[in-house]
Design goal:
Number of strands: 5
CATH topology: Rossmann fold
GO molecular function, one term: shikimate kinase activity
Helix content: 55-70%
Shape: globular
Radius of gyration: 15 Å
Order of helices and strands: EHEHHHEHEHHEH
Cofactor: Mg(2+)
Number of helices: 8
Enzyme class: transferase
CATH superfamily: P-loop containing nucleotide triphosphate hydrolases
Largest sheet: 5 strands, parallel
Bound molecules: shikimate-3-phosphate
Structural class: alpha/beta
Catalytic activity: shikimate + ATP = 3-phosphoshikimate + ADP + H(+)
Keywords: Amino-acid biosynthesis, Aromatic amino acid biosynthesis, ATP-binding, Cytoplasm, Kinase, Magnesium, Metal-binding, Nucleotide-binding, Transferase
Length: about 170
Amino acid sequence: MRIYLIGMPGSGKSTLAEELSTLLSLPFYDMDTEIEEREKKSIPEIFTEKGEDYFRKVEKEVVQTFLPDNSILATGGGAPCFFDNMDFMLENGETVFVDVHEDVLVERVWQQQGTRPLLAQNEKEEVYNAIKEKRESRLPYYSKAEFTIEAGTKTPSELALEIKEVLKK
Ligand code: S3P
């Protein structure tokens, strides 16, 4: 079984992947970390030096060729929305959309400024607008996921248990 966690930046996919990994005794991987290791550059450096199109090609390569069986992948927020990545994930594993309200996302993203080149606006209100716009345009992809969990107010361990339950069904 492969489990793909998808959702907006700041939705807590990486923390949740780690929690789920302990609960299900499966290894987990973080897609952005995998990309950084391959490219030997940080995500902001890849965007600045090579551009988004290049990043999306490496991202596709990681989504579609890297994940071993019986493991969990925390995907980057944009991954399901480029090429045929979403269809690939639907065909090759269990997809879980970690859905978080914009108000919660903006707080988290704002506190981690500098790590996300597409949300690097100077004012919090601009970050909010960018998140709102991205979330709306990405929902058609995210909502194809087999399972959706409402994640804004629950702890990672509560969410991991919820995912374990839905996967049993
Ligand atoms: C991106 C999200 C990031 C990272 C890159 C692009 C996006 O991952 O892949 O900065 O397009 O939303 P997180 O969702 O882990 O922040």
